[in-house]
Amino acid sequence: MMCCAQRRRPGPYDRTQTGHDLARRTDPSSSRIAAEQHTQSGKRSSHRDIALQLVRQYSGQTFRELWDLMCADHREIFRTPEELMRRLGDLRRDGLLEHGLARQCTKTGHLMLTWWAKT
Q1: 22-51 pLDDT, tens digit each
Q2: Domain coordinates of the chain in residue numbers?
Q3: Which residues on adjacent β-strands are paired with residue 102?
Q4: Going by C-beta distance under 8 Å and a sequence separation of 6 or more, which residues neighbour residue 75?
């Protein structure tokens, strides 16, 4: 299987302004600071690019299935499946991804939403 990094293309979104809050109003100030640092470092943008390409390549998967399909280098960059889930949420809010029907995840056995790239 080809590593998802080998098929990576730049995302079609503005990498500096996502159009949604980075943290909730009820979150502590440290959460807002961490979110801003994550954005300013370029990690949010590069993670979004990787996540978008992954869903384009493997549409119809749950986030846990996508995590397992991700190459080892990208899993090391993301560190946790939850970081992938956060970036999928960013991309959905920006209109680049959408949820499909929920189904039983082959990795967890739980009912989970599927992810689809908008065309």
Answers
A1: 666 787 887 777 777 767 767 788 899 999
A2: 38-119
A3: 113
A4: 67
